[in-house]
Amino acid sequence: MKELTHISNRIRQMAAELGFMHCGISQSKRLDEDARRLEQWLNKNYHGSMAYMANHFDLRVDPSRLVPGAKSVITLLINYYPDTEQSQKAPHISKYAYGNDYHEVIREKLRQLLFRIREIAGDVNGRGFVDSAPVLERAWARESGLGWIGKNGNLINKQAGSFFFIATLITDLELQYDDAFAGDYCGTCTRCIDACPTDAIMDNKTINGSKCISYFTIELKEMLIPGEMKGRFNDWMFGCDICQDVCPWNRFSRPHNEPAFTPIPEILELNPEDWEAMGEDRFREIFRHSPLKRAKYQGILRNLRFLRPEST
Questions:
Q1: CA 131, CA 106: separation in Å to the nearest integer?
Q2: Domain limits at 42?
Q3: Angstrom distance (rounded) from CA 228 to CA 200
């Protein structure tokens, strides 16, 4: 038991040294209740055209399908809250996309963490995941005591709010486990529900992903955004932070200290005309390491044109 405690504490220490703001550890298990909620969500087609959400269902709810013999799920949070804001003339971009692509940044940190774990614990089998793999990150964060899932669908941490990325490291190493987070501190607050301009946030902690501004500006690949959404994007060109910006718990957000998340100057300053004049080659050059490359330049132009009052 003393050895488990020692290794677990060393892992938390190493995570902090790599820049993670919080680290929680849960025992690996099948997430049956979360599986039922996910199945219901998918059956209601709240994922829209995001077909990948329905893929690999069993892998999402059972860590042992991803790492044979899985015993522990290590969940890590890394802050991305910026210390600067966009200029008033700039079309809105989600704060998580101000700097380099978090997938690239966090994958390297997870690789280093697993390497260090093997140095102190021997031959450990493990895999790190960041957002793009079939893992229920928020559920594991809750199970490892890092916070609760708010009405806006985001994980909320009492000390840090919700402007952070969630990463997961599944291993076959037995560790000392944290208690699951008990309680829900959203209370009667409905600020996120009231503020959502597309009514994507429902009153039972369910998000209709197919109505979210982030879905339309990033995930939707068709070149036409549904006309009924016209005038409801509040100048959001890529993603949306409205439900987080109005959340009272984000008064505890503090600027990150991760150099890779330093805002790209063009994101802070360019107006819509600058974006349209940029051209595809320059876009690729400037944003080759940015999450914006996911929407591609043509997607950015589509979003900008949809924001114009006179466009159809």
A1: 10
A2: 1-312
A3: 14
